[in-house]
Design brief:
The chain has 381 residues and is α/β, with parallel strands linked by helices. The chain folds into two domains: 120 residues, Aspartate Aminotransferase, domain 1 (Alpha-Beta Complex); 239 residues, Aspartate Aminotransferase, domain 2 (3-Layer(aba) Sandwich), CATH 3.40.640.10. It has eleven helices and twelve strands. A hairpin with a 4-residue loop joins strand 5 and strand 6. Helix 2 packs across helix 8 and helix 9 runs parallel beside helix 11. The longest helix is centred in the last third of the chain and has 21 residues. It binds pyridoxal-5'-phosphate (PLP). The site of pyridoxal-5'-phosphate has 12 residues, from helix 4. One of its GO terms (molecular function) is O-phospho-L-serine:2-oxoglutarate aminotransferase activity.
């Protein structure tokens, strides 16, 4: 207790400058935006920003976003990149109206995956979803069932730092595989043949701003949208995926998007493509993860929260601290030194830190972060 209060009272422990990361942003979203992307945005501040999203200047950038993602994810030619306003959270409601025919199954293993399950459970036009849950820090497995027409998976559960490999469930060929890839897309490997709808917001691995959702959709998912439309179900326009598909084909959104968000997303996609694509972006995350978990495993006071090594996220690391080291106080001291947002996910309630390792974050900065944490912890011993 005494050690704890000593640390709380001295948030001004000064971390030596040679242990400070070049960039102190380690938050899981909004996350670090590369300064080069912002400079590039400034360059178009009078020609692109503040211009009509129905004209070619903006539509060309939306086209680059759609083509760039098709290339990045090696999408088969009949898949489509669809986008709209509202972020991944809005997309759960969209899926509830436009993708789930009658009944969905949700792998629920943290805050984000459980929220989509709740949205489906509340929808009066759907049957009760099948919710397969597991303890925080672990992940459940799909239970194939022929009453299910959509399997809701989460590539990376951002609240706990658990990732899962995306595989089409065997024996569920007629169902849609919908993946919340908000924190996983571009940071984790994926094969487009294994999903029908891979959706995300761009403020995580795509180092942009929030407010937009992007979905990579297979012909099967596109057909499902049409089928549901034909049943005559009432679908509010902003939740109607068929309207978003129509607009996306014209490189537009149904209503006005944030042009800066689109631009920054394109800048990140093109940065990935210029450097080797998904291999480059996922490689940076793996390198950071090796550094973070390697440090925790060798530490006397820190341990990776996720026990099963294959479930340990390569994009969001969660590290438990021994009870005598107060993780929140450590995070507060780091914050006073310009290293921000390593606090744990608020509702998880563990004595831990959470570190984003998205592609924009330099692995060498993750290394310096671990040195800075060691310094803070030892400074108060
Ligand atoms: C951040 C996040 C969301 C929520 O994204 P919004 O853009 O805030 O709607 C959903 N799912 C996962 C896995 C996330 O990491």
């Amino acid at each position: 207790m005494e050690r704890k209060s000593k640390l709380t009272d001295s948030p001004t422990v000064q971390i030596p400058s040679d242990l400070l990361p070049k960039d102190g942003r380690f938050g899981s979203g909004p996350s670090k935006i590369r300064p080069e992307a912002i400079s590039s945005l400034v360059d178009v501040s009078t020609t692109y920003l503040g211009t009509s999203h129905r004209q070619s200047t903006v539509r060309d950038v939306v086209g680059r976003l759609r083509n760039g993602l098709a290339e990045l994810f090696s999408l088969p030619s009949d898949y489509e990149v669809v986008l709209g306003n509202g972020g991944a959270t809005q997309f759960w409601d969209i899926a509830t109206f436009s993708l789930i025919r009658r009944r969905s199954q949700h792998l629920s293993f943290g805050e984000f995956s459980s929220k989509f399950a709740s949205a489906a459970a509340l929808a009066p036009h759907l049957e009760d979803p099948d919710i397969v849950s597991s303890e925080p820090g672990t992940r459940p497995k799909v239970k194939v069932d022929d009453t299910i027409d959509l399997y809701a998976l989460t590539h990376n559960e951002t609240s706990t730092g658990v990732m899962m490999e995306i595989e089409r469930p065997l024996g569920a060929e007629s169902a849609i595989v919908a993946v919340d890839a908000t924190s996983g897309a571009a940071g984790l490997k994926v094969d487009a043949a294994e999903f029908d709808c891979y959706y995300f917001s761009p403020q995580k691995c795509f180092a942009s701003e929030g407010g937009l959702w992007i979905a990579l959709m297979s012909p099967k998912a596109l057909r499902r949208v049409e089928e549901i439309k034909e049943t005559g179900r009432f679908v509010p326009a902003t939740l109607d995926l068929s309207i978003a598909v129509e607009n996306s084909r014209l490189n537009q959104t149904y209503n006005t998007p944030a042009l800066a968000t689109i631009y920054l997303t394109v800048n990140q996609i093109e940065w990935f493509l210029e450097n080797g694509g998904l291999k480059f972006s996922t490689g940076r995350c793996s390198e950071s993860a090796d550094i973070l978990y390697g440090w925790a495993e060798g530490s006397t006071y820190a341990t990776p929260f996720v026990q099963n090594v294959v479930d340990r996220s390569l994009v969001v690391g969660t590290i438990d601290f021994d009870p005598e080291i107060d993780a929140l106080s450590v995070a507060k001291t780091l914050r006073a030194n310009g290293i921000v947002d390593v606090e744990p996910y608020r509702k998880l309630g563990r004595n831990q830190i959470r570190v984003a390792m998205f592609p924009s974050i330099d692995p060498s900065d993750v290394y310096l972060l671990t040195r800075a944490i060691d310094y803070v912890v030892h400074a108060i011993k």
